[in-house]
Amino acid sequence: MAKRGPTYICQACGAVYHRWQGKCDACGTWSSLSEEAQAAPVPGGRGSSGGKARGRVFALETLKGETQDAPRIVAGIGELDRVTGGGFVPGSVLLIGGDPGIGKSTLLMQACAALALRGQRVVYVSGEESTGQVRLRAERMGLAEAPVDLAAETNVEDIIATLGQGQRPALVVIDSIQTMWSGEVESAPGTVTQVRGSAQALIRYAKTSGACLILVGHVTKDGQIAGPRVVEHMVDAVLSFEGEGAHSFRILRGQKNRFGATDEIGVFEMTGKGLSEVSNPSALFLAGRDQPAPGAAVFAGVEGTRPVLVEIQALVAPTSLGTPRRAVVGWENSRLAMVLAVLETHGGLRLGQHDVYLNVAGGLRVNEPAADIAVAAALVSSLTGAILPNESVYFGEVALSGAIRPVSVAAARLREAAKLGFGAAFLPSGGADFGDGSGLNLRRFGHVTELVADIAA
Ligand code: TYD
Ligand code: MG
Questions:
Q1: How many domains does the chain have?
Q2: Which residue spans within 80-121 are E strands per DSSP?
Q3: Is the same domain home to 269 and 197?
Q4: pTM of the model
Q5: 98 is in an annotated binding site
Q6: What are 65-89's pLDDT values in tens digits?
Q7: Residue 382 annotated as part of some ligand binding site
């Protein structure tokens, strides 16, 4: 066994040091090291007494029937079930991260109530609020009558003992993992060691009992699930709940999922009575579009399996600074820099003396390169003052050579645009044949020079 002595653990990433230092070499965070007792042996672990041949092995094929025994636990909230991949898997552990006040507790209380009302035993453990506060929230959402078991407790041994009494719960929510502590771990609550130890104990409970466990995790200012990056590796799925303070809608996004796709999003709107599902996000993101103005282009995007239309806004203005500003909300900085460089080199635009601002309307975060030509169109439109046709959508990837490349699921993008009343689409000239494009007027482009010429004309 390693020599015992003071250990310093980075509270951001869990890296262990034997000497204090100002910056964590592993993740680059400053002042994140704190002294903790040497990580205790795993609670309930067998130490180094030498392994006994206790683990049983199974032939893969003989397990065929077993996986069908446990059907998924469907929450009945369509947008949530979509992100989990069709419901919670019994015995699995899910981590939900998000900023404080974004609505994690609200969402989970709604899921608990929906399951409890269908006769499942559901336990909601709050380490942050009293049972009275949790009940008040449920009342506000009109769910106070749902037979959810509530507990305000922070000690994991007590929680696990309580859960062992009575009928086995189908779902257990722990709100939040940072408030939990285990008596078998020496560090203070909230430290990496404590969070990891508590998570381990709870995960072991889920795996042995077959209950689905949801852990709520807080997020640091740079968007990572605070403290326990380590916990992310221990769980089966990591979901993040996002939203812009100024907007009422929220997006649940899969970051890791052993039982489903990770690129699905669920869209909700925060109302006075909890979260309501948004089954047609495009209509929401395009709502309140202003009169046609330069610098606005509608991008036909895809999130997971679902097409989502969203407006991309650009403002290109002469700069008064030595180094012009580039500011982006909802898209990648480096991707904008690339599109700007391509427009300068191949499109003949002069942007060196201009500030550039780019915004994805409504607070959605776009990750697809397919947004390139929507961004390019918005930039050219703002620079030249030419208004883009109001009833058009844009999608296509821009290569460094200036070529416009085809993107996937074009047919679904066009169908969504047609459904929302758009009449034309600007898209790459190559790519698979997808019929007539739902009756849209298709404008195909092979190179950014053609696009620039078309907009400026
Ligand atoms: P909460 O679920 O407590 O957030 P988290 O657990 O992620 O910290 O949500 C808190 C916010 O949601 C709070 O600012 C009030 C708002 N809210 C509503 O607008 N309507 C509602 O019905 C509820 C329950 C909360
Ligand atoms: Mg909360």
A1: 3
A2: 93-98
A3: yes
A4: 0.79
A5: yes
A6: 655 556 889 988 999 999 999 999 9
A7: no
